[in-house]
Each structure stands twice: as C-alpha cells, then as structure tokens.
Amino acid sequence: MPNFCAAPNCTRKSTQSDLAFFRFPRDPERCRIWVENCRRADLEAKTADQLNKHYRLCAKHFDPAMVCKTSPYRTVLKDTAIPTIFDLTSHLKNPYTRHRKQIKELTDEDIQRIKERRLASAEQTIKKEDLSNIADNEPQLSADEKEYRDYLRSLFEILFMLAKQAIPLTTGRVSEEELKSNNFQAVIDYCMNAGDEALRKRFEVTAVNSEYLSAAQLNQLLDVCENTVREEMLMEVRESRFYSLVTGDLVEFANSKHLPVFLRFVNQQNVLREEFVDFLPFVDGDEAALVESLEALLVDRWGLSMEDCRGQAHKATGTSTTKMKAVAVLLMEKYPLALHMPCSHMALNIHLANNLPFPNVQIVMENLRRITSFFKTPHTQDELDKAISIQFQKNEEKGNALKKMCSSGWTEQHNIFDVLLDILPSLLLCMDSIRDNADGKFSSCVTADAYSIGESIADFEVIVTVVILKNVLTFTRAFGRNLQGETLDVFSAANSLTAVLYSLNEVNDNIDVYHEFWYSEAVSLAALMQIPLSVPRLFLRKQRAADLGEIQAETYFKEYVTIPVIRGIMQEVEDMFCDNNLRALKCLSLVPAVMGHMKFNTTEENFAEVYSGDLPNPDTLPAELHCWRIKWKHRGKEVRLPTTIHETLQLPDVKFFPNVDAFLKVLSTMPVLKVEKGTGETATERLQAYLGSVPAKHLNKSLAMLHINTHVKHDLDVMVDKYCRLYPEDDPEAEAEDVGEDVIVTKVI
C-alpha cells in the first residue's frame, strides 16, 4: 500500500517518488510539534500512536541537514528532527478546489504559544552551547584521574544501593586479627566480577588480605554522601524561609542516644514537606546545653535562622519527655514565634499521657510500647484473638469488633485507653497462654517477654491508672481527633477548647464524686481478672518508715493517681494551646471552605498580628482580606471551595493576594497540621521502617539518613568532586570522625 504525505498541499506518495517517507514520532511532545507545524486541524484530536501508525511526512518538509542516508537503501531522520518546510498558501490561488487536508487558521493565542516554544527551544540550544563551551574550558583530566573518579563513583553507587535496601555495612565486627565477611566488601566483589572496570583496576593489584578501605576512608565516603543529600533539602528550606522544627523519639547508635531532627516547610511548588535531616547527639545534662546544640546545628552548620522558625513539636517518650518540654520552653523564651504544639504524627491523648511525669502513668505507657512490639512476633496476634474469643463468648459481636481493632494499630489511636481497658482481661489471658507455651511454638525470649508483660499488667495500681486515664482523656478524645482531621476540623477544635477545659474543670471541682465511680470501675475489673486490691508496696514501706499509719486504698489512689492525672492533663492542655497557639489556629479561617462554613463572617485580621512581620505588605492586609472574602462569597455556583491550605496555595490567582499567600505558607508549617502523604511514606514512617528492619547492633547513622531520604535527588558527580576536593588522593589519610560502626573492608581469599 502506498504512503501518502500528510502535509497540506502536498500530493506526493511513495509509489510516484523516490523520496523517503517518515512516520510521526511516538513521543507525545515531538508529535504535537509536528502536528502544530503541519497546521492540520483534523490531526489534533488523534493520539501519538494513531498518528505514528497511519500518517507520514515526506522528506521535502525537513531541512536537508536533518535527513541522513545511512545506506543506499536506508534514510533516517535525526532524533531532534522537526518538519519546518510547508506550502500553506497555494490552495488560495484556486479557492473552489475541495481540500481533504484542511489547514488550520492560527489564532493570536496559537501564534503566541508557537513563539514561546521557539524562544524556549532557542534558549535551550544556547544553554547547551554554553555548557559545551564551559566543558571545553575545563581542565582536562589525566587517565589516572579519570580512573580514580570512576572508582569513587562506583563506591558511592554501592553505598546508595546498600542504604536504599537497608542493608547493613557489615555482618559482624571486623578487625585485623579476625577477618569476617561483610556486605560492603561482598557488593564490591560482585561488581568487580560483573565487569566494573574502575573497581577491578583499583583492587586487582591489592595484596591478599590487605584492606580495601579503612574505617576512616569509609566514614569519609559516608560523610560526603550524607552532607550532599542534606544540602539538597536545606537549599529548599532556605528558599522557603519559614520552617518548623520537629524532633522524634530517641534512637540509640553505638551505645549513645541521638535525637532525630525533622524540618517542616512549604517548597517552591507550594507543597508542604516534612524531611528528616540529621541525628543530634542527646547528652544527659541540662536542657540549656541541648538548646545550644540545636541552635548550633540549625544556624551554624545548616545556615538557617532561628528567627524564621514558626513552630516546634517534640515526640518524646519515657524520661526524655520532661527534658524536651523544658527545651521547648527555653526555645519559646528566645524565639516567641517558635510555637510549641503537639505533633501531628501522634494522637493527642497519647501525647498528653506521655507528658505526665508520674511513675505509674509512665509504667502504663511503657507497657503499651512493649505490647506494640510484642505483637509483631509471629503467632502472638492469633493467641490474642483466641483469648478475646474466650473472654467474649457471650458477646461475639463485641469480641469480633475488638479483634478487628487489635489488628490495626490500636496502640496509636485516639481511643487507645478505651481499647486497652476492654481487652485487659483477654490480654492477661493471652500472656499466660504464651508463657505456658503448651505447644512449644514460641521461643524462650518470647515467653519471657509474655511473663514480664503479664506480671506488669496484673497489678492493681496499673488497672486503676488505666481506668483513670481512659475516663479523663475521654474529654479530649474528640478534640484530639479533630486536630488530626481536615482544616475545618482543626479550626473547629480551636474553637472548642474552652468547652474541653470547662469539662475538665468540672471534673476537678467534683473530684470526689468522679473518683468514686472510677475507683468502683477499677475494682470490678480487678475482680474479673482475679487481682487483689492493694496499695503499692513501696508506698507502704515509706509510710511505715515514717510511722504515718495505714492508708485506705481508695484514698491513696484518689490522692496519688486521680487528682495528679486530672490536674496534669489540664495543665498540659493549657500549656499546649496557649493564646498565641489558638490565634494561629483560628487564622485557618483563611481557607475558603472554612470561610464558607462561617458564612464568610470571619475576622482573621484580629489574630494576624502574631505574623504581621512575616507578611510582604502588612498595612494592606485588612483590605486584601476583604477582597479575599468577596472573591469566594460571590463565586460562581460551579466553583468548589478549596478545603485545605494545600489546595488553596495551588490556586493560580492566589498570587494576586500576596499577604494571604504568605500567611497560608506560614500557617501550613504548624506541626499540629497533618502532612498529606501523597503516594509515599512520611519521613517518620521511613525512619521507623529502617529501625525495624536493621538489627540494633548494625544500625548506622549515615545509612539511616540516606535510607530515609532516597527520594531526594543526588548527583554522584557532585559527590565525587566534593570528595576529591576534601580528601585529595595524594594526601596522607585523614582521620575521620566515626559515623556509626567502625568498619574496615578487607580483601579475603
């Protein structure tokens, strides 16, 4: 079948000409340009695949320089070839001729778009020429230098592969006396066997059993990788200016504690990001020293300004909670706009309970963390399901509901204490069953953990504490759930705080009545679990030593559990949602959906003075806010109100409201607002995944950082340049600061 040329006013076909005919390209962008140049209106609706299959252009429509004759029988186009030679006027001489190939009349918009595309293409060509000239002016590398750089590039590739897959560097401690297998060396050997010439040339003359890389050299490589990836993220933070500081729970590397540090910011695409940037050594000492370390890290090492920090959140557990609260207070004293808020990654009720400094509460929270870890062991969840079935034989519906809740991360939910109280008898039964290990399916380590957890929860003080926490935190549960909801929910939570505090105060004022009911609930549960009522042994010993006489159990738990818990929760809520925090949260009414909910009767300017210094034109804010409300109030019926800050920032016309745009970006960084996951995991989830997949003794600080940030672009050539600049090959080997494990990579027979 002959090929016909698709160009207007061109009647050539393959059977009547020796010209080559070329298919339309499959690449959608190039294909669109071909169609645009052809001016065939009827081809615009067709896909690139359809055009490639059914339409051709003859060689007459291409610049001869774009056509290559590779043999007497084969003619091809260059990859960048675009048709530019067309006859678009000859049909005008005979206007009565019927044309199958209709020529599109260009509008002003079409002409402007074509001009912009050609201008962009010209700029790109000039840029390529400039880069080519720069490359020509660069000093030429010798053959040895090129080999060395290729070798470094291979090493960096191996390190990134190990980090991405969460593979530890070594499988055991490596020393000169006892050479053991390690993963880094194994991958180097594999790459050499697979044909990596750079590595093979480097190591083929290495003496047997000599070192591939010393610990200092490996730490230098890791340090360059880590700093390069971190700098990519910090550049985005500096461009966005405003950020919030978020710290995670303590992580232990090489017998020393470290504090994970995250930064939350809005990037140039107006997308909220929360990225992991480093581990800060956590030294037991005064809080002022830790604040100084944080400031030195952010300001001196990373080039950020603490004056631009607009929020802070600290996800601490155990004994570190008191210290991190003190750190937050000190930071707010120095930087009042670094508002201390709860972290969006943790349910508010869990955060409040973690912050209570009472030993009995901390024992309950530690047991919950141990239970979470324990039920990751195979078959343990099955045992809990069996225990729940036995316990709820007469109420199968509730039993099935509890099984479903226990299989989906209940220890991280807002109703954690409600679920714990419901399954406590079943949990004790499950631990007893695993400890007995009648069928031998559990290891001695698992049975020992079951025994320890069982003994801890079979204590009357623990039961009373769980009952008190459940009942007190009922008043904050809906409030906390709203804080982690959509923007309208967060705004509603800010306006409902007064009601929450009123309820807590009402409980505190009538503590005798409430305690009587709650203590009775604890006694009933203890009877069901066959646990005797008792006052803690340590307290009794102190009472007897002081000769203060006996104390009734109900009185003890009222004075030392119920009253401290209710007052501690009230204080935490008041501290965490102070006036400045509430003003910031109420400014969320800038989001159009919240405005609509409030019937556009909002007064953000009353709360905006907190951030007046962050706005480009604070004097015009009232007028701009008025225009912003009018814009959404009188919108068309088909226009949907954006429901989140992210949606609002993505609007093309938000740039015409510079104060609103800046205001929303600052508000977006507040740690209490949830981060949209998108398609991937959050930085916190990636950190937990790394810690859960790598044995504790093989954890490496640098590899953890690279694993968490595999999504960050990295240029291996930049790393090679940086390494060559910092550690010239002919210099004596420099001692590097240890990063994680002391690794020596050796060549073994």
UniProtKB/TrEMBL annotation:
By what name is this protein known?
A: THAP domain containing 12b
Question: Looking at the record's lineage, which domain of life comes first?
Answer: Eukaryota
Domain (THAP-type) ranges: 1-86
Source species of the chain: Poecilia formosa (Amazon molly)
Entry GO MF terms: DNA binding; zinc ion binding
Q: Which UniProt keywords apply?
A: DNA-binding, Metal-binding, Zinc, Zinc-finger
Q: Which PANTHER family match?
A: 52 KDA REPRESSOR OF THE INHIBITOR OF THE PROTEIN KINASE-LIKE PROTEIN-RELATED, 52 KDA REPRESSOR OF THE INHIBITOR OF THE PROTEIN KINASE-RELATED
